[in-house]
Design a protein that fits this description.
Chain lengths: 525, 440
């Protein structure tokens, strides 16, 4: 069947999780939707791949932390095959002296911490509560279309006033404290809160993961609050059975069940603009397709500058988009192992947890300095999961796969990655071997994705995972730029629905909110 | 002759600057860098460190100074420029009845070239730049995203992919910002290009006598290359005086020779060298607001209330909302539906001697600001460009004037009237062919 023979109400560009979520919600509302994906598989960086035959792993991102329960339910993901190998994964900060620390405010874990450091045990309870309260106050802002500064209803002021009011309810000292925390660095915050170096470093790493910031960069404390607020919508960190690709497969089944036409291997060359209205798309293959609504889950910068073209938007907007920051700082290492590495001091039940390998706060700051200089950091902060512990389908019996996110790895490195790649790999394995001495011997195969690889493989500019860094000046009503923050664009009929839009992260919320925006306007017509 | 040979390129001016800076420092100070024939036209500029001089002189400085009997100079874009060379009355008479020659080299000139030059400019300016043909000129205004005017000027199309933008103020940063995503090069060629303006009823005749053959066939806003005794000169039928007139663009090295030639050949036609005061007077008579004086560019205005839209400047005719996107179009579409906040308009004050005033009043309340005030010798009244608060209904305006008589002062309230069209506009402006002397 030729495309031109069918007509569609909406075209979704890009088959990442947000694109799929947007397509599903539109289709659910009875719209005829077609989705174009440039590569031959859906999901983008949310995908499962093979390290070597029989060893499967989430190629890039490896945990679901922010997918709202509501989206899961409304799109019937469970009925469409989404199963969880593990939910509510604990987070454990590994310690070199084998006294690993479970980062939770559960009574048992606090009791364990109290034996170690009574002050920190109390501080952790208080800190967790505070973080939760701030996150709860921020939450309503994340679940809706970001407020706007312009237009007749300048509701940003109202929204911020409401936020202040919610904060005020936390009580006077808390409110003052919040005003101080918002622009603060996570380093200063944890220094003032905890005594145990490991606890400080672990929380600092939590705030820095995926960002191109150091522990003492201003605004990093807000990262932690924002991330926690996104996590409120779901039931803890979870591990989908079959890797992250399973989420996309479920979304795909859901979309197809709702009648969405999905075209993979069909890259969009440009969005056709006629007199300030986006009327359709042209694919690289030369096909034309028109629809009253076009949603792009591609990076907003690429959408507006490459697909729409600078000639069709204002120069100031083009500049602001070009200036949005995309510094890839996270590399990924996937390992196939012929057995479970022994991490001394870790209980057998804890191998399936989210493991943080963090250097001290000072070393983390040094790592950021190295990152800025374009060098391989001496000490690396990492997030490690061994998903095969909970999900035996990923590797042959008795064998395992390990997924490592490596923080503060620059896009470009002095001497070039061809020379430095093995050095980084060595340093990663060496660091991990401090905790799991038999790791090196157990490696069968592995793949390492550096920022340039992530850029090439998933089309993420600068190897930055979020289509625009998630930092305070690029979140909420500033994501991706103030005039594009409400999913609408200056071009009628064109909407943004990807991770580069509010609220970001693997939440699908951008897709859902964009679809809601489209439906509220009834498309162009 | 055609525009193929580009005399304006400044490609050689950039490299080796650091090295030459060093050389300059080793030279004894009294040794003035001089533009000699073998040093090339840009040696003066490249022999010294960039921005080392705040006071600049145009390539025509010595030629113009020869004509001065007043020694009254002023500053125009950092260039030493004659305020009045003889007397303003004589210069004005030349403009309206013979021909006024002026050095307009201080204008800012940008060369815009490259494969995407046409679509780049179409996105830059509010009008449809795609319809500009080679050897044509159009007045343009360009806005930022909110629809506020960044600047205005004239756009020349020199070749298929080559344009020149002539403006009153510097705009390189905005031009480069706007170039994102386009295959264009934007360079400031102000130093590499001299400009002369010849305005007045005899302008065509003088040019004709100087060797600009058939210059009278140029339509308004058309331009063409001429060869004047071996000097390539690009002549355009433009000028901000409301008069028949031409502007001549050429290599700075050749400019003094052309100046001398024009003075020689024009003598019998009554040519007069004129200064900046006349340029301002003619501009205000023609009702043309000047950037930086009568309105603030969007990036100069600290408060958005001080910036202006094209509609507020009376430049609505330069805004084409229908054909193609340009920066600020969405905003201007919205703004067009609304009343303007203020208007820049011409005001006439029927008072027979020059007065100075700032505030324009309406029923005793200040309702606007006069940004340029002149006394028009031809009409015997004061003219001003004013920025008035917008009123849907016409209102009676007046200005307060302090009049000095000897040692005493009288405070007068003088009624003022709004002008809907320029008070002076020679019919010769539009005549094609432009009249030569015999027909005048």
């Amino acid at each position: 069947m030729r495309l031109a023979d069918r007509s569609f109400d909406a075209i979704v560009i890009g088959g990442g999780h947000n694109g799929l979520v947007a397509a599903c919600y539109l289709a659910k509302a009875g719209k005829r939707v077609i989705l174009f994906e440039a590569s031959d598989h859906l999901g983008g960086a949310v995908t499962t791949g093979e390290i070597t035959p029989d060893y499967m792993i989430s190629t890039a991102s490896h945990l679901i932390e922010a997918l709202p329960r509501r989206i899961e339910k409304e799109l019937k993901l469970s009925r469409n095959g989404l199963r969880f190998a593990a939910r509510n994964l604990p987070t454990i900060a590994l310690s070199r002296d084998k006294r690993h620390l479970v980062l939770s405010s559960r009574r048992r874990d606090i009791a364990a911490l109290r034996e170690w450091n009574a002050h920190d045990a109390a501080a952790l309870v208080e800190f967790s509560a505070r973080l939760k309260a701030y996150a709860a106050a921020l939450r309503p802002l994340l679940l809706g279309v970001p407020p706007s500064f312009t237009g007749p209803s300048s509701d940003a002021v109202t929204a911020l006033r409401r936020l202040v009011w919610r904060m005020r309810r936390l009580g006077q000292p808390s409110f003052e404290d919040l005003l101080r925390v918002l622009p603060a660095s996570i380093g200063d915050l944890v220094d003032a809160t905890f005594e145990t170096p490991l606890l400080r470093a672990a929380f600092a790493f939590e705030a820095l993961r995926g960002t191109a910031e150091g522990p003492y960069s201003p605004g990093t404390a807000f990262n932690l609050i924002y991330r926690r607020a996104l996590q409120l919508e779901t039931r803890g960190t979870s591990l989908p059975r079959g890797g992250m690709g399973a989420l996309v497969t479920a979304l795909r089944h859901s979309a197809e069940g709702l009648g969405v036409a999905i075209r993979t291997g069909a890259a969009v060359r440009c969005i056709i603009v006629e007199n300030n209205v986006a009327v359709g798309v042209e694919t690289v293959a030369g096909e034309f397709l028109r629809a009253p609504a076009i949603l792009s889950s591609v990076d907003p910068r690429a959408t507006m500058l490459d697909l729409v073209g600078a000639a069709n938007i204002d120069a100031g907007l083009a500049m602001r988009l070009a200036q949005t920051s995309r510094r890839g700082a996270t590399a990924k290492l996937n390992l196939a192992l012929d057995g479970l590495p022994t991490i001394s001091g870790l209980a057998p039940a804890e191998y399936g947890a989210r493991l943080l390998v963090v250097p001290s706060l000072g070393e983390l700051d040094q790592a950021f300095a190295s990152f800025k200089r374009g060098e391989v950091p001496a000490e690396l902060g990492m997030e490690v999961t061994i998903p095969s512990v909970a999900d035996t389908s990923l590797a042959p019996a008795g064998h395992h796969v390990m997924s490592v996110l490596i923080q503060h790895v620059p896009y470009e490195v002095a001497g070039g990655w061809t020379l430095q790649r093995d050095r980084l790999l060595d340093r990663v394995i060496e660091t991990l071997a401090r905790y799991a001495p038999d790791l090196r011997a157990r490696i069968i195969a592995g793949e390492m994705l550096l920022a340039p690889d992530i850029e090439a493989k998933f089309g993420l500019a600068g190897g930055e995972w979020h289509c625009g860094e998630m930092r305070p000046d690029q979140l909420l009503m500033f994501r991706p730029t103030p005039e594009l923050a409400r999913y609408r664009t200056p071009l009628r009929g064109l909407y943004l629905c990807g991770a580069g839009s509010h609220p970001g992260g693997i939440s699908g919320l951008a897709g859902q909110l964009a679809a809601r925006t489209v439906l509220s306007e009834g498309g162009r017509a | 002759m055609t525009g193929g040979g580009d005399i304006l390129a400044v490609d050689g001016a950039g490299p080796g600057e650091a090295e030459e800076t060093l050389n300059f420092q080793m030279q004894p100070e009294f040794e003035e860098p001089q533009a000699t024939a073998d040093a090339g036209p840009f040696s003066t500029a490249s022999d010294e460190p960039p921005f080392s001089r705040r006071v600049l002189t145009t390539p025509l400085h010595l030629s113009v100074a020869m004509e001065s009997i007043t020694n009254r100079w002023t500053d125009w874009n950092g260039y030493t420029t004659p305020e009045i060379l003889t007397t303003l009355d004589d210069e004005y008479r030349a403009l309206r009845h013979a021909a006024a020659l002026a050095d307009i080299s201080p204008l800012v000139k940008y060369r815009i070239g490259g494969r995407d030059a046409a679509i780049y400019l179409d996105r830059l300016v509010t009008d449809n730049a795609m319809r500009l043909s080679v050897d044509e000129v159009m007045p343009v205004v360009f806005c930022e995203d909110r629809g506020f005017v960044v600047g205005d000027g004239h756009l020349f199309r020199l070749g298929e992919d080559e344009y020149r933008l002539v403006t009153d103020e510097l705009h390189l940063a905005w031009l480069l910002d706007s170039a994102l995503g386009f295959d264009v090069s934007v360079e400031d060629v102000s130093v590499a290009l001299a400009g002369l303006s010849l305005q007045g009823p005899h302008a065509a005749a003088i040019l004709n006598a100087t060797g600009f053959f058939e210059v009278e066939t140029l339509r308004p806003y058309a331009a063409r290359w001429f060869d004047i005794v071996g000097m390539p000169v690009y002549a355009s039928r433009t000028g901000a005086t409301g008069e028949l007139g031409f502007e001549l663009w050429l290599d700075p090295e050749d400019a003094p020779m052309l100046w001398t030639r024009l003075i020689d050949k024009g003598a019998e036609f009554g040519i007069a060298a004129t200064g900046y005061a006349l340029r301002e007077l003619a501009r205000i008579e023609a009702g043309i607001p000047r950037a930086g004086r009568d309105y603030l560019g969007a990036f100069s205005a600290v408060d958005a209330a001080d910036a202006s839209t094209p509609f507020e400047l009376g430049l609505a005719s330069l805004v084409d909302l229908e054909n193609g996107h340009f920066t600020g179009r969405d905003a201007l579409r919205r703004l067009k539906q609304q009343d303007p906040r203020h208007l820049v308009v011409s005001l006439a004050l029927d008072f027979p001697e020059p007065v100075q005033f700032c505030a324009v009043e309406r029923q005793g309340e200040i309702d606007g600001t006069a940004t340029s005030v002149v006394f028009s010798p031809a009409l015997g009244i004061n003219l001003a460009l004013v920025r008035l608060k917008y009123r849907p209904a016409p209102v009676a305006l007046s200005v307060g004037v302090d009049l000095r008589e000897g040692l005493s002062v009288r405070r007068l309230k003088i009624p003022a009237r709004l002008l809907t069209e320029p008070v002076i506009g020679s019919p010769l402006r539009h005549a094609v062919p432009a009249p030569l002397l015999a027909e005048y």
